[in-house]
Structure formats: structure tokens, C-alpha cells
Amino acid sequence: MSEQETVQQTALAYQCPEDALRDRVILVTGAGDGIGRAVSLALAEHGATVILLGRTQEKLTAVYDRIVENGGPEPAMAPVNLEVVTPANCEELADMFAREFGRLDGLLHNASLLGDITPLEQYDHGTWDSVMQVNVQATFYLTRALIPLLRQSADASVLFTSSSVGRKGRAFWGAYAVSKFATEGLMQVLADEEENISSIRANSINPCATRTAMRNRAYPGEDPETLPAPEDIVAPYLYLLGPDSQHVNGMALNAQERK
Ligand code: NDP
Questions:
Q1: Residue 35: which CATH number?
Q2: Does 145 map to a domain?
Q3: Which residues are catalytic?
Q4: pTM of the model
Q5: Domain hosting residue 223, numbered range
């Protein structure tokens, strides 16, 4: 088995020890819904202090309340619309987190826009720009601004969210597919830069087909009940954002067994 296959199997089979993430501060983007929400709840359940970043305050508050109800560490909320966020905004956020927490042990880039499923010839320019802004530009701005804070951690994990169409192009997936290829590129560049010189590692995860609003928009004819729920796929996220994957860097992994 290759190293990649071994890590993949470990991630899929991972059973996170109860307090494995205690004292870790982890930022999740798109934390209000779908996979980001489920991962945020699971991270807190295992002891992490989660910074919930998303664009809809009510959704963030609902996740915040659920974590507190469940007895998890008090989270923080960062209501941010990544479609309009600037590098300066990200620097301000980093300063705020530095004052509050002093370091960052994990960063899950999960928020994304789907855009249109349509041929390139007809792809709307504005939609293209919005998808690239949320999925690529904002991911870079946030990563860049947060690197100094990640360096303050003894073991920091940056996890980028990819997709099957970010590993092999597919007709009609337009800006979304291109943005996910860029996401893989960003992950590889960061992983290579940090290899052997710092405590920061970077990997990507493809959640694979999961029952969320985005999936339903992309595949309106599909019965959502045939898909795993976001709660069912959190184990590899816990592995990759936690201390047990400290040696894993630069890998493109999946959150489900590929059929
Ligand atoms: P959802 O659409 O269900 O959730 C996405 C989250 O991102 C939402 O909370 C949303 O906020 C937030 N978000 C979107 N745009 C912005 C923005 N401009 N600023 C801040 N937050 C924003 O998607 P999924 O949970 O399905 O997807 C999570 C990740 O997994 C994405 O990166 C997606 O590409 C990837 N993925 C998903 C698959 C699937 O089958 N579900 C398959 C492959 C990849 P709000 O709630 O306010 O809308």
C-alpha cells in the first residue's frame, strides 16, 4: 500500500478519542450549514474551541448555541461574507483572533459557491468572478493573513476543501471545477513551502457526495436520502485537523470510500 493509501484508510477508519482536540483552536469557514456545521459540532464535541466563520449570522448563532448546549468549549463567531472580503479585512480578523486566542491550530477552508452548471460558452462572467472570489481569492487572503497565527501553534493543520471535479475536469462544472483545481494548487504550494521548516501542514479533502443544500442544487433530480449526511463523514476531518495526523502533509484525500 502506498503512503497515500495508508493515510486514506487511517482517515476513513479514524475514531477520534474523546478529548483529542482539547485546547486546539480551529477556524471553520462556512460553519453555519452543511458539512461545515457538522464538522464544527464534531470538533467542539472533541474539545476544540471553534471559530465559526460564515455569512449568515442566524446560522452561526444556531451552531454556537448547539455547541454550548452540548457542553462544548465556548466558540467564537466571525460573520464574514467571503464574496466581498478584502485582504485588509482578513488582516483585521487575524489581529482579532491573535488578541483573543494567540494562536491557531487548525484552519478548515470549507465555504464555497457552486455557481452555474453550464457550458463555458454560456458561463456568466459575474458568476465566474463570484465563484473565484469565494473559493480561491478569499481562501488565499485568509490563509496568508492567518499564517503568522498558525506559526504560533506547535502543530497547525490547514485543510482545503476540494471536489471530484477539482481533480479531474468535467463538462459544465465551469468556475467551480476550475476553483477547486486552484484550491488543490494552493494546498500543494503551501504544503511544499512549509515542509520541514515549520509546524504547519496542508492537505485537501474531497467530501464526496454528501446530503447538503449545495449537492441538492447541483443534482436536483437525486434523492438526498441515498446520500450520507454531513454528520456521517466527519471522521477524516477530525483526523486531519487533529494531532494524530501531524505527519501528513501535501495529500489530496477523500472523506468517503471512492466507489
Ligand atoms: P453548503 O452550501 O451546504 O454549505 C456551504 C457553507 O458555506 C454555508 O454555510 C454557506 O453559508 C457558506 N458560504 C457560502 N458562500 C459564502 C460566503 N460568500 N461567505 C461566507 N460563507 C459562505 O455546502 P456543502 O456543505 O455541501 O459544501 C461544503 C464544502 O464541500 C464546499 O467547499 C463544497 O464545494 C464541498 N463539496 C461538497 C460536496 C457535497 O456533496 N456536498 C461534494 C464535493 C465538495 P450560508 O449557510 O449562509 O449559505
A1: 3.40.50.720
A2: yes
A3: 176
A4: 0.98
A5: 3-253
For residue 52, list its beta bridge partners.
28, 77
All cell numbers assigned to 1: 500500500
Pairing of strands 25-29, 76-79: unpaired
Beta bridge partners of 106: 26, 157
Residue 210 alpha carbon, nearest atom of ligand 1: 40
pLDDT digits (tens, 9 = 90+) for 45-98: 999 999 999 999 999 999 999 999 999 999 999 999 999 999 999 999 999 999
Number of domains in the chain: 1
Across the beta sheet with 200-206, the strand order is 76-79, 49-54, 25-29, 106-109, 156-161, 200-206, 252-254
Q: Is 56 near ligand 1, meaning CB less than 6 Å away?
A: yes
Is 258 within the bounds of a domain?
A: no
The atom of ligand 1 lying closest to the CA of 33 is 9
pLDDT at 10: 98
Q: Evaluate: CB of 46 within 6 angstroms of ligand 1.
A: no
83 Cβ below 6 A of ligand 1: yes
